[in-house]
Amino acid sequence: MCWNPLSVVVCSVVFCALLDFAPSGVLADVTVKANYDYGENYRVGQYKTKLLLHCSIEGNQDSIKYIWKWFKGDQEISSDDDTPHHVEVKENELVVNRFVESDAGPYTCKLLNSNNNQVLGSKSFNVILKPYVKLPKTATYIEGEKMELECIVFGKPTPEVSWRFENNTLFPSEHIKFLANKRNISNAILVLDPITMKDRGNFYCTGKNSVFLDPVVSDPSYVRIKDKMAALWPFLGICAEVIILCLIIFIYEKKRNKAEFEESDTDQGPETNNANDHSGGDVRHRK
Predict the structure, then answer these.
(1) 200 in a structural domain
(2) What Rg, from alpha-carbon coordinates, does the chain have?
(3) Average pLDDT over the chain, rounded to whole?
(4) How far apart are CA 71 and CA 77, in angstroms?
(5) 213 belongs to a structural domain
(6) Contact between 166 and 201 (Cβ < 8 Å)
(7) Residue 204: which of 192, 216, 212 has the closest Cα?
(8) Domain check: are 156 and 171 in the same one?
(9) How many angstroms separate the CA atoms of 149 and 171, rounded?
(10) What InterPro entries has UniProt attached to this entry (predicted)?
(11) What is the pLDDT of residue 254?
(12) Is there a contact between 87 and 79 (Cβ–Cβ < 8 Å)?
């Protein structure tokens, strides 16, 4: 067989191509697995806590040279992004250090041939944010005023919010209303108009979404109701103290003046009589 230079070049190219794609045949027995929480691809993150996405290989890994890449949607993620401390990529792991709503969404880990970047396997994550609900520990209102109590809500998908007073679920009525907050989450604000003494107690808000069906209940918020005259009592108390003080001063001054007057009369009486007696004696003596 006669080999010319062109034949040698063509054979060399074909041989190199076969070498590059040879590992893909070996990887037919390799499976990529992911740390799902439930379902086929769900991973649940909690508000402002660390979230770990992990992929691994099962199967024959001999003679495999591979690399891992992570994507959110179609955008590749790396630790060289603008916020390296928020998201970290560690080969087959992706760490979100403080998980918030904007971090929820579709993620993908891809296993690639390091020689030619051929995708050897991948796993997709549907990352959701578990509902997070929070109320102020205490709140104080005056009887007869309108109460607006807001439940701080986060979650992806957007949670549905419901309310409870002590052990009773609240429903809309003439006295009870629900409003959306600035982020347009329905029922996030509870309105009682007017508020009465019967409304004093513990309120709870609950959040659940279409994926994470287990309801998440907030810590209680204790609502105090003050009497409508409560603001007037301190003023009346001060006025009463001033009046009592003035009366005490007036009575004291009156008694003191009376005592001084009586004392002056007592001091002047005997001296005046003695003086009169002596003057009378002198007059008789002269006669």
Answers:
(1) yes
(2) 45
(3) 81
(4) 5
(5) yes
(6) yes
(7) 216
(8) yes
(9) 15
(10) Cell_Adh-Cytoskel_Orgn, Ig-like_dom, Ig-like_dom_sf, Ig-like_fold, Ig_I-set, Ig_sub, Ig_sub2
(11) 77
(12) yes
The amino acid sitting at 105 is G
Q: Which two tokens stand for residue 207?
A: 């959040």
At 220, which amino acid appears? P
| Alpha-helical segments (H) within 95-204 | none
In sequence order, which residues have a C-beta less than 8 Å from that of residue 86 and are 6 or more positions away?
96, 97, 98
106 and 148 part of one domain: no
DSSP letter at 220?
Answer: P
CA–CA gap between residue 280 and residue 64 (Å, rounded): 147
Helices (H), 76-205: none
Q: pLDDT digit string (tens) for 160-181?
A: 999 999 999 999 999 999 999 9
| Residue in the block written with tokens 């309801």 | 215
212: number of Cβ within 10 Å: 21
Q: Which residues contact 126 (CB under 8 A, 6 or more apart)?
A: 41, 42, 43, 106
Q: How far is CA 264 from the centre of its chain?
A: 78
- pLDDT tens across 235-264, in order? 778 888 899 989 888 888 877 777 666 666
Quote the domain boundaries for residue 96.
30-130
Helices (H), the chain: 5-26, 232-286
Q: Side chain identity at 170, as an amino acid letter?
A: L
pTM of the model: 0.68
pLDDT > 90 fraction of the chain, expressed in percent and rounded: 52
What domain count does the chain have?
2
* Residue whose pair of structure tokens reads 């002269």 in the numeric block: 286
